[in-house]
Specification:
Layout lengths: L7 H4 L1 H7 L18 H13 L3 H13 L15 H8 L6
Length: 95
Amino acid sequence: MTAASGRLTDHAACADLVTAGAVPATAWDTDPHARPTPLNNHAKTICHTRCPVQHDCLATAIALTLTGDPAGRIGIWGGLDPSERATLTGHGTPP
């Protein structure tokens, strides 16, 4: 998540877990040219099972991508990585 996501981080499961030191922030980082790591898959599970703002987070990433903001084309947002979001939106491929 970025500053562009603003208030999402006030309620996001990822922010709580990273702040508590339970999961490293790098779990939500992705390499667009590599398969997801086990840590990425763990982050996606957290998004899908524990996050109260998962849908808003995904919508934010899609909106950022569609408006050309590069922040929406990196990392795991709303439980999806850049490749999965590109497939969902039909909006090109990740960087």
